[in-house]
Amino acid sequence: MQTTDILSQLVAMSCSLAEPANDFVILAEGNTSARVDGDTFWVKASGVGMRGIGPGGFVQVSFERVQSMLTGPDLTDYETREALQAAKIDPAAIGHPSVETVLHALCLALPGINFIGHTHPTAINAITCSVAFEEAVSGRLFPDEIVLCGPASVAVPYTDPGLPLARTVKERIDAFIDQYGEVPKTIYMQNHGFIALGSSPSQVENITAMAVKAARVLAGAYAIGGPHFMSQQAIDRIHTRPDEHYRQRLLGGK
Ligand SMILES: [Zn+2]
Questions:
Q1: φ/ψ of residue 174, rounded to 5
Q2: For the chain, which domains are there?
Q3: CA 9 to centroid of ligand 1, rounded, Å
Q4: DSSP H helical segments within the chain, as ranges?
Q5: How many beta carbons lie within 10 A of that of residue 139, not counting itself?
Q6: HSE (side-chain half, CA atoms, 13 Å) at 250
Q7: Backbone phi and psi for residue 13, each to the nearest 5 degrees, phi listed first
Q8: Residue 12: CA atoms inside 13 Å, Cβ hemisphere, count?
């Protein structure tokens, strides 16, 4: 696929996620990205709102240069900014890569992942900002949540945005892959927000929509005495059913 095709898909996905009726983001909240190939990806520029965003709201950056920040020494805010600027494919391009660019790089480097949607949905942040955060995101509530969002989520304790957050998310993703033998589809960050990891734009949109629904169900369940999470056996059954795999493919790829 051409770089420009990928960018236009990313623009459409971002505008869709930012629809006011969704209540996933307001103002300049959230950021999105798309993998071009093994060398580069597009990421939203810092300070740009996703609502009505155009191609000029994104910058193309080098995987290698961004990923070297992950394994390199700790950086000050100024050094982080300089390193992100230096990661741009076209140094003269307008726009500065989002502070969460390192986070996007590590998610887009996972097998089968081509698009990332990071949002701050009100319904999800009611959960991530609650005292019940860890327990609340530890289970699965209904079969469609498993079909869209996978058998479990990655939960990340509150961490300073930027490089420290990216490093913590990487640790948690690695632990998830060790435990489940597959790449996560949903990441919940305490007191911050949500990340959907998808092979396609529609998968990112569907995962986000289903996670928001699950968050609303969860809040309702807590109001009526607490959630009844599905058993591991029931989760495994849904996750491995051939008819559910068929539905997953229909819903934007597996
Ligand atoms: Zn955020």
A1: -60, -40
A2: 3-250 (3.40.225.10)
A3: 21
A4: 3-17, 63-71, 77-86, 101-108, 122-128, 133-136, 143-149, 163-180, 201-223, 232-240, 242-250
A5: 17
A6: 7
A7: -60, -40
A8: 9
Other C-beta atoms closer than 10 Å to the C-beta of 41 total 30
- Cα separation, 121 vs 129, whole angstroms: 12
Task: Tell me the per-residue pLDDT of 216-240, one tens digit each, with 9 for 90 and over.
Answer: 999 999 999 999 999 999 899 998 8
Q: Distance from the CA of 120 to the center of ligand 1, in angstroms?
A: 6
- For the segment 11-56, what is each residue's pLDDT rounded down to a tens digit? 999 999 999 999 999 998 999 999 999 999 999 999 999 998 999 9
Distance CA 110, CA 88 (A): 21
Long-range contacts of 235-240 (CB under 8 A, 24+ apart): 235/140, 235/146, 235/151, 235/152, 236/151, 238/143, 238/146, 238/147, 239/146, 239/150, 239/151
Phi and psi at residue 206, in whole multiples of 5°?
Answer: -70, -40
101 CA → ligand 1 middle, Å: 11
Interval between CA 122 and ligand 1 midpoint (Å)? 12
